[in-house]
Design a protein that fits this description.
Elements (H helix, E strand, L loop, with lengths): L1 H19 L15 H63 L17 H37 L7 H4 L17 H16 L10 E6 L2 E5 L3 E2 L2 E2 L3 E8 L3 H9 L1 H7 L3 E11 L2 E8 L8 E11 L11 E9 L14 E15 L15 E12 L6 H27 L7
Parallel strand pairs: 8-10
Antiparallel strand pairs: 1-2, 2-5, 3-4, 5-11, 6-7, 7-8, 8-9, 9-10, 10-11
Helix pairs in contact: 1-2, 3-8, 6-8
Amino acid sequence: MILFFCCRYFDACAELNAQKDGQPLEMVDGLRPIDFKGEAITFRATTAGVLSTLQHCLEVIAQRDDSWRRKLDREIEKRKKLEDLYRQVKERLERVRNSSLPGPDLEEGPHSTLPEDEFFDAVESGLDKMEEDTQMRVRLKLQSQQSQLSSTDQHPEEDSVVSVDEEEFGTGGEARSHRLWTEVDRICLDQLNHARQGVGEGGNGWQLFADEGEMKMYRREEEVNGMVIDPLKACHVVQGVTAREMCHYFFSPEYRMDWETTLENMTILETVSPDTLVFLQTHKRIWPASQRDALFWSHMRRVTDDIEDPDTHDAWIVCNHSTEHETYPPANTGKCVRIYLTVILYCQTYVAETAATEKGKISRKDLSCKITYCSVVNPGGWAPATVLRAVYKKEYPKFLKRFTQYVVDQCKNKPILF
């Protein structure tokens, strides 16, 4: 179009030259005369429109350029995020691959590069998976027992604790000549005093961290060499069981795999007496923590002296305390980190005032068991303090509810054991 108007412009110029040479206006070289002023105005308007259109095209191109530049920036940002995510996943897989090597400090330790939130999430998911597996196994076992009971229409075989000498069991009489007896007796009496002591006595500084109905749990924050060893104390009341039944299932090794979800295997290193055993327990490894084991003696005892509550029908304890054994290597010489623990389960039986005085006529509806559980556990290896405290705040209430419910389920179809 611009070329067309240029041609018209040159024709007009030729016409003016012809007029100057004296040629007639009607025809110059065969061309008709034109209105030069009108053509010039039209040409100016047309070129202005063309320039405006070209300016608009340039603006549109600039906008599109900005849009594509923003899209490119977003794609670059996405690529950076994906590269960072890939690097993190690669590092995590590398840590998992290295975790199979021995030694407690590869994943768990003061120099661990794993963030505390990831550490906690990994431990929590591992514990939840173990609990689900244990609950499924216990349900299947209970269903099997119930089917056997319904098919025979008889009570299942009574527990092994009934078959031992009733006069000696729970007194420690057969263990008094053993090398461990002095320590066993001292620790049991000391822990019994701790269990009987109230949480508000003596300025002990107990802090309530779980309160679910009858169950209350307390703690004191303590650390040794940077490791958390917070003493814990729990109080609970369970209906329908006795103190001896509760302690029996806590003490007897044949039941421990049913309610202790973290156990991988358990060995009785020494049978000091029917009521005193030396155990070696290996716990399942929960990445990124190192695998743990525990070597301890366990003693079950009837409390006959100075029962603090006159309404108590009877009272029993189970006390566990770490020890050494000549037939097993010292701590931390193998793949496991050794746990050091002191635990007491103190149980008291209460019988409703309306119940019959003869034991044979007391029903489980008349029974209640008051439980006091105290523990001090040194994890052995370093782990983040915030993670350990977060884990036990969640796991200890679950453990106590799981264990007490297990005992109730085991005892409900069996004769009462005092």
